[in-house]
User: Which sequence fits this backbone?
């Protein structure tokens, strides 16, 4: 322990001495230094927490929060923004690896179970939460004066956002713990399915809201075209890129690291330009590679997973640094209440789902712990609402930001504990042969 | 190929792993075979493919990567330079084991340096073109960039291979001094001290943080963090990451063998993609102006003369060890030369030494092609 | 043994089929999703740069919107109409909108200029607003708002004057509500002079002539308001609110006086008295409260420990204290400063010099020196500054052709017409100037 602290001390001394001795630099010249210190310090924070028997990644998150713009401001806002660039690439890489994980054969066998579990969980959560929020709407600090259809639509939007899950965070926890096993597979599948359902749901609810508020349809194309593009288009784009990459792997197979990096950059850029869901695109790309050229896919997956820990550390640290603590100070009580209610409903929904015959129980009842995380995508949904309805939408955004802050912090730790309880941590290193789910 | 040679070429480790896991034969198709036929295997001569690729993709070519985007890749270049320097530093112990070869390499590199500097300096003075650096310093920089060599096609034990490894030290140390002199900010001595301090501190930190039995995920994080720290601190202080990495590598070799071994293992996996990115950036930053083309011609000719003369001189110094014509074997330049010049360009700011950088890039590519085609000795 | 054309392995065939199918699906769906645009081409330029640029713009716009929404309840918009019949009515706008800074449920600080009628924009329309007190010296006023919903809590004022540079949000008034724009605050200089002890000078980005703009920081905390006299400056919100509250108590209490006549410092006086700021005592009423304490030639530099900038400033401060109370004055006499105490008294109700009114207060006087011009009327020989005639726009050389009902009036007729008019009414005057005739309005206050 002392060795590590001494090492950190030397690093910080070096940084301070450099700042004194040399001319001050700005911009990209500080990125590498900042990243290096962040990696070492976050690793140390993870070590510290591991000693306290908590998951390492909570340490990374804590590091991000403490050093972020709201507390110590060692990671200043421009640096946090730089980290966000890497964050996008990180999400693409993580989703790609998750797609490489999904074997068609195994999935087909457990499809019924996944659908049942996802359906009951989301259904129960949605109905219960919508009822509670609609009843409590006049006391919530969002738009107390709303009534009738508008109130219902506003409550529905908030419900949809609150129910959303974060596949990226779930995948990141799985990658960081090197987990394999039935719980991992079911949770991954459920969270992806939920993401698809919620994309559809959110688009429809926003249309309802626009109709209730008397605003125009917003986009100049129909809802079905929008949805079709976002879902099927994303998957198609991912398949295209994945197939091209697989062709390269199969026939040329040189400089794969660089080409992989290039693929991630192209994925992020094209998704942004064409307005597709980047997560689904990357997932589809990985899925195509894994299932059409299995040997290369497996080898790629193992190799990339071995090299991904630094990317994951940066991902979690950036997530921590981007948590908006001041929103928490504003609407903290409401956010805590919402988070608690959400977890309760998650647990109940999953318990209900495990009653169904096709869902296996021992891993099944722990699935709810993998669904607690919420991350940047949810924030994006709130921003969409806030842009279209500036008055109450901004208040809704504040509540959502606070809620996401809580869930982003708790979620990974909770899921990690579940994985440990199911004995699946480090499963990849043990090369456990995967059984049918 | 020698994948475990401590030199900046070799296969991408990901390629090796995939190749191992995949059933062989009918899958390898016609593409790499054409490569071999042309004698341009990117494994032995990475610069041949990636520098022109970078040029095509860069602002001077198709414009796929714009100038601000290149700025974002600056940290990557710093880290790549730090990695290269570390590799050289870790191998530096060879000096003590082969003093005669060290002498030969010093002579040969020195001869090339002097010749190239002289020719380029006279050319610059004759032109009277305004440059960011005084013409002598610019010529010195180009000379430092022309002096190293690599001999990728030879086995490790061949004396020319050893000489090629050892003469990488000249540009690294020379570059440290050069950058300390031309860089902005305080005195050169302070900057040199800072370079050494960065290297040694990172060395100590590694020794403190790396230990046996560490899970691989933690170890990878620490190693990547250390590399970023090396490159980042050097870039922040506007000193040479090559030299800082060298200092760190030498420290590990001298004082902390275990940490050095761990880092070497991981570095071998990381350095290849870094080098490829570095070559692409070098190509993208080049602009083929007339000035650059004239400089390239001068550089190519003077380097050729220098290497041949140096080889002859070296064989006079230690005749039994180094055969007479071995200057020819030292023609392939490797990437250290380009690294030195790109480093200088980074410190001085964008656009300061574009012609010099382009000339070095052209000369690197030319010599790599020549090196592949020239007669080899002792090939496996 | 390879055949002439390499046979495609099974995997390759599968992959090629996938490529074709995906590309086809994308093109088909794109036709529906982007109906007017051509099928999207690959973005060829600057992949990495796009990563950075969008993030910055999105974030700035969202941040400005968030800051504005957080500050909006505390920054209502006033609708200001120019006073009817005032001399400047033709020059300036008839109606303009300015933001105000609410510091209590119904009170706000604003820069109203020469507005005659005030209203405040609420959700339902325009509600009534009234001027409660005005600090003519510093150029702001306290306004009472009606029909606005009560504040949830105290306004989020920045407790400390800002010290760091960076982006802020400037809020102006518009017919529809508040309008926010980003501005960059580059430097903070302490303001010279004694008007605002803690104020910072205006960064060059804001144009002068936009007093009244409220500036908030990116988190929605109110930094201050740009107040216009004598130099437009960004006054910290806390300072402004404190000053406004002081003004309120001042206007609530009955006016007090010291019994002196004061004069502003000009350059000669400043060098003669060695005083940098303040007001010179021109005359001390021997029966007034300051008799025996102040002398002619003294320079009052501070009132109650706060520096004063002009004679009007001293008057305002003194009035705030109330009759019977004593004020501590920082006085410079013969180059030496000392602190003197004066007990104030209620003003003597008379028009004239002994009441201690500063020259800034206008006596109800016509202020014209006239000479009879036979056949035309009366020619103006001199116009006293600050009088009703000056306000009306009469100039030396004008010939009064008619006033009220009198045509070609003699000087005595002009004076009689003015004296007979009831206070608060306006008199029309026709003048000949440079060969043309004009109508002017003389207001008798």
Assistant:
């Amino acid at each position: 322990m002392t060795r590590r602290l001494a090492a950190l001390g030397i690093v910080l001394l070096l940084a301070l001495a450099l700042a004194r001795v040399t001319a001050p630099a700005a911009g990209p010249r500080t990125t590498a230094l900042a990243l290096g210190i962040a990696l070492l310090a976050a690793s140390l924070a993870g070590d510290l927490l591991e000693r306290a028997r908590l998951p390492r990644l909570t340490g990374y998150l804590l590091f991000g929060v403490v050093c972020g713009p709201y507390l110590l401001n060692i990671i200043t806002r421009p640096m946090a923004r730089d980290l966000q660039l890497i964050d996008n690439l990180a999400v693409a890489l993580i989703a790609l690896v998750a797609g490489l994980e999904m074997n068609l054969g195994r999935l087909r066998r457990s499809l019924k179970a996944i659908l049942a579990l996802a359906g009951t969980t989301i259904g129960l959560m949605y109905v219960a939460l919508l009822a509670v929020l609609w009843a409590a709407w006049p006391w919530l600090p969002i738009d107390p004066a709303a009534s009738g259809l508008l109130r219902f639509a506003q409550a529905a939007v908030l419900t949809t956002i609150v129910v959303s899950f974060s596949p990226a965070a779930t995948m990141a926890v799985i990658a960081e713990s090197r987990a394999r096993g039935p719980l991992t597979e079911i949770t991954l599948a459920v969270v992806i399915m939920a993401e698809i359902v919620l994309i559809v749901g959110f688009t429809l609810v926003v249309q309802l809201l626009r109709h209730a508020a008397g605003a125009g349809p917003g986009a100049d194309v129909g809802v079905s075209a929008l949805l079709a593009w976002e879902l099927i288009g994303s998957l198609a784009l991912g398949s295209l890129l994945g197939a091209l990459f697989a062709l390269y792997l199969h026939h040329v197979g040189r400089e794969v690291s660089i080409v992989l990096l290039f693929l991630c950059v192209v994925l992020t850029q094209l998704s942004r330009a064409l307005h597709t869901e980047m997560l689904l695109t990357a997932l589809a790309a990985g899925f195509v590679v894994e299932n059409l050229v299995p040997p290369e896919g497996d080898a790629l997956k193992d190799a990339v997973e071995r090299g991904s820990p630094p990317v994951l550390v940066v991902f979690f640290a950036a997530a921590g640094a981007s948590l908006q603590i001041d929103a928490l100070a504003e609407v903290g009580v409401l956010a805590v209440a919402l988070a608690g209610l959400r977890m309760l409903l998650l647990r109940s929904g999953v318990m209900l789902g495990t009653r169904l015959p096709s869902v296996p129980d021992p891993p099944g009842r722990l699935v709810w712990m993998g669904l607690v995380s919420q991350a940047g995508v949810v924030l994006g949904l709130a921003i969409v609402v806030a842009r279209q309805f500036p008055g109450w939408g901004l208040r809704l955004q504040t509540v959502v930001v606070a809620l996401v802050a809580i869930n982003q912090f708790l979620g990974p730790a909770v899921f990690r504990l579940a994985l440990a309880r199911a004995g699946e941590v480090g499963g990849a290193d043990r090369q456990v042969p995967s059984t049918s789910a | 190929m020698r994948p475990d040679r401590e030199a900046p070429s070799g296969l991408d480790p990901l390629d090796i792993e995939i190749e191992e896991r995949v059933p062989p034969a009918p899958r390898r198709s016609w593409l790499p075979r054409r490569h071999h036929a042309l004698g341009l295997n990117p494994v032995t001569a990475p610069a041949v493919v990636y520098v022109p690729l970078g040029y095509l993709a860069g602002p001077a070519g198709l414009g796929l990567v714009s100038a601000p985007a290149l700025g974002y890749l600056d940290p990557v270049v710093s880290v790549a330079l730090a990695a290269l320097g570390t590799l050289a530093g870790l191998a530096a112990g060879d000096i003590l084991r082969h003093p005669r070869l060290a002498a030969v390499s010093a002579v040969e590199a020195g001869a090339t340096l002097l010749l190239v500097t002289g020719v380029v300096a006279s050319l610059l003075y004759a032109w009277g073109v305004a440059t960011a650096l005084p013409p002598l310093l610019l010529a010195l920089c180009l000379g430092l960039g022309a002096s190293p060599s690599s001999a990728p096609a030879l086995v490790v034990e061949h004396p020319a291979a050893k000489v090629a490894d050892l003469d990488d030290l000249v540009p690294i140390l020379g570059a440290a001094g050069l950058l300390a002199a031309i860089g902005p900010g305080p005195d050169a001595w302070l900057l040199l001290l800072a370079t050494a301090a960065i290297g040694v501190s990172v060395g100590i930190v590694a020794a403190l943080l790396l230990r046996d039995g560490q899970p691989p995920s933690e170890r990878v994080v620490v190693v990547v963090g250390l590399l970023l720290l090396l490159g980042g601190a050097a870039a922040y202080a506007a000193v040479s990451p090559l030299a800082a990495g060298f200092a760190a590598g030498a420290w590990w070799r001298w004082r902390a063998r275990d940490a050095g071994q761990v880092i070497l293992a991981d570095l071998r996996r990381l350095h290849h993609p870094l080098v490829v990115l570095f070559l692409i950036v070098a190509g993208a930053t080049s602009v083929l102006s007339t000035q650059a083309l004239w400089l390239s011609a001068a550089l190519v000719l003077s380097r050729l003369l220098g290497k041949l003369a140096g080889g002859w001189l070296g064989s006079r110094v230690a005749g039994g060890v180094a055969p007479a014509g071995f200057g020819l074997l030292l023609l392939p330049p490797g990437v250290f030369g380009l690294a030195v010049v790109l480093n200088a360009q980074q410190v001085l700011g964008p656009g300061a030494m574009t012609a010099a950088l382009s000339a070095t890039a052209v000369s690197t590519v030319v010599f790599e092609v020549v090196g592949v085609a020239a007669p080899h000795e002792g090939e496996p | 043994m390879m055949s002439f054309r390499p046979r495609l392995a099974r995997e390759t065939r599968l992959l090629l089929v996938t490529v074709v199918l995906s590309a086809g699906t994308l093109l088909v769906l794109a036709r529906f999703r982007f109906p007017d645009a051509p099928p999207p081409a690959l973005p060829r330029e600057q992949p990495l740069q796009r990563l950075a640029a969008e993030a910055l713009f999105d974030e700035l716009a969202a941040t400005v919107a968030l800051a504005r929404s957080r500050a909006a309840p505390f920054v209502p918009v006033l609708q200001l109409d120019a006073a009817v019949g005032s001399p400047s009515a033709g020059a300036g706008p008839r109606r303009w909108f300015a933001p105000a800074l609410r510091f209590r449920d119904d009170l706000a600080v604003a820069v109203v200029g020469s507005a005659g009628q005030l209203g405040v924009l609420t959700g339902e329309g325009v509600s009534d607003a009234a001027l409660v007190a005005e600090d003519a010296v510093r150029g702001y006023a306290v306004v009472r708002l009606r029909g606005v919903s009560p504040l949830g809590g105290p306004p989020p004022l920045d407790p400390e004057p800002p010290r760091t540079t960076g982006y802020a949000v400037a809020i102006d008034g518009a017919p529809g509500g508040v309008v926010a724009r980003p501005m960059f605050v580059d430097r903070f200089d302490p303001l010279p002079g004694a008007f605002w002890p803690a104020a910072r000078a205006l960064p060059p980005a804001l144009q002068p002539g936009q007093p009244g703009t409220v500036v908030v920081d990116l988190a929605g905390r109110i930094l201050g308001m740009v107040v216009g006299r004598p130099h437009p400056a960004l006054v910290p919100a806390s300072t402004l609110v404190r000053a406004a509250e002081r003004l309120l108590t001042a206007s609530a209490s009955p006016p007090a006086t010291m019994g002196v006549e004061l004069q502003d410092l000009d350059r000669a006086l400043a060098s003669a008295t060695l005083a940098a700021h303040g007001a010179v005592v021109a005359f001390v009423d021997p029966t007034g409260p300051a008799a025996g304490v102040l002398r002619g030639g003294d320079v009052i530099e501070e009132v109650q420990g706060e520096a004063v900038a002009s004679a009007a400033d001293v008057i305002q401060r003194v009035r705030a204290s109330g009759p019977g109370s004593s004020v501590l004055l920082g006085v410079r006499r013969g180059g030496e400063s000392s602190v003197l105490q004066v007990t104030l008294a209620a003003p003597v109700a008379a028009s004239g010099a002994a009441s201690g009114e500063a020259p800034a207060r206008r006596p109800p006087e016509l202020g014209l020196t006239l000479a009879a011009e036979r056949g035309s009327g009366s020619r103006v020989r001199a116009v006293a500054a600050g009088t009703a005639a000056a306000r009306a726009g009469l100039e030396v050389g004008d010939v009064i052709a008619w006033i009220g009902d009198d045509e070609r009036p003699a000087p005595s007729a002009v004076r009689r017409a003015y004296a007979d008019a009831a206070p608060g009414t306006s008199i029309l005057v026709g003048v000949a100037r440079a060969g043309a005739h004009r109508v002017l309005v003389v207001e008798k206050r």
